[in-house]
Amino acid sequence: MIAQLNGRLIEKNPTELIIDCGGVGYSVKISLNTFSKISSDEQVKVYTKFVVREDAQLLYGFAEPIEREMFNHLVSVSGIGPNTAMIMLSSLVPEEIAGAIQAEDVKTIQSIKGIGAKTAQRVIVDLKDKMLKMAFSPENMIVANNTNRFDALTALVSLGFDKKSVEKTLDKIGSGEESVEQLIKEALKIL
């Protein structure tokens, strides 16, 4: 129903944007990935998904159409609602989720808060074929398939380092055969 909003950014916080479109302020729930991609410029454009529940009408926003597409795929899985999908998209970028699904990496999907083993397996079974049809950049897919690198990246980001600078650092030091601990130690020397 509401596919995108293009308007003036009134308020921005890690879970929500308020966007003024023609005098109406829309409250839009967002992931941490979208939060990091949306600049604090006055003019903003977000792709949206309008969800109607029995007790609420909610608008979910995404910086890129590919993130909205991943959200739609995730909520199609039994046991994953919009809030869980947003947690997944806050924990991993769409390319990392797709890479984990294609690699049948239950551990990575299960590492997301609120996702158990059965739900992780259901996500893989339900979405594996659909992930092949989505267009992702290959460099992000490699991150998800290299478990040691992915674990090191996750650990360093959780320590407060910027994700892009951590990725660049891991590119410089990684030959693909280091343990998670070695990757983290080497990255900390550079960061």
CATH architecture of the largest domain: Orthogonal Bundle
The fourth-level CATH homologous superfamily of the largest domain is 5' to 3' exonuclease, C-terminal subdomain
Strand fraction band? 15-25%
Runs with pLDDT <50, length 5+?
Answer: 137-145
Q: What's the pLDDT, averaged over the residues?
A: 85
Query: Biggest sheet, in brief?
Result: 5 strands, mixed, barrel
CATH fold-type name of the largest domain:
DNA polymerase, domain 1
The end-to-end span amounts to: 45 Å
Helix count equals 10
SSE diagram, text form:
Blueprint: E1 4-13, E2 16-21, E3 24-30, H1 32-37, E4 43-52, E5 57-62, H2 65-75, H3 82-91, H4 94-102, H5 106-110, H6 117-133, H7 138-145, H8 147-158, H9 163-173, H10 180-190
Parallel strand pairs: 3-5
Antiparallel strand pairs: 1-2, 1-4, 2-3, 4-5
In short:
With 191 residues, the chain is of the alpha+beta class. The protein has helices spanning 32-37, 65-75, 82-91, 94-102, 106-110, 117-133, 138-145, 147-158, 163-173, 180-190; strands spanning 4-13, 16-21, 24-30, 43-52, 57-62.
Describe this structure in words.
The protein is built from 10 helices and 5 strands, in the order βββαββααααααααα. The longest helix has 17 residues, at 117-133. It starts with a strand and ends with a helix. The model is unreliable at 137-145 (pLDDT under 50). The chain folds into 3 domains: 4-62, OB fold (Dihydrolipoamide Acetyltransferase, E2P) (Beta Barrel); 65-137, 5' to 3' exonuclease, C-terminal subdomain (DNA polymerase, domain 1); 146-190, Helicase, Ruva Protein, domain 3 (Orthogonal Bundle). The protein is globular, with a radius of gyration of 17 Å. A 5-stranded mixed β-barrel has the order 1-2-3-5-4. Strand 1 (4-13) and strand 2 form a beta hairpin. The protein is an alpha+beta fold and 191 residues long. It is 52% helix and 20% strand. Helix 2 (65-75) crosses helix 3 and helix 8 packs across helix 9 (163-173).
